[in-house]
Amino acid sequence: MTARDLPRRMWKLAVWSAALVAVTASMLPFRGRLNDAHVTIGFLLVVIGAGAHSGRKIGFAIATLSFLAFDWFFVAPYDTLAVDKPLDWVVLAAFLVMSMIVTQL
What pTM value is reported for the model? Predict the structure, then answer.
């Protein structure tokens, strides 16, 4: 990576982060009615787009941010990184692994 590539990478990271914020904001009003599959699909679309368009590093960064947003906003208790049910750990771990695999491809 050259010094000229850094602004371009930062711009791509900002664009995909904004996409992640938009998807999160669009699902947030419905979080009581959404199940884990809905949230996973919404976030995976952003992760796949970021990885396919911007490369592995940005894809991994967006996958990690998606994992954190998933836990913070859509796993009870809300607005914490705590997990109430042990099965939710399985869902979060599966999401993170799946996101990383998709980004790698």
Answer: 0.89
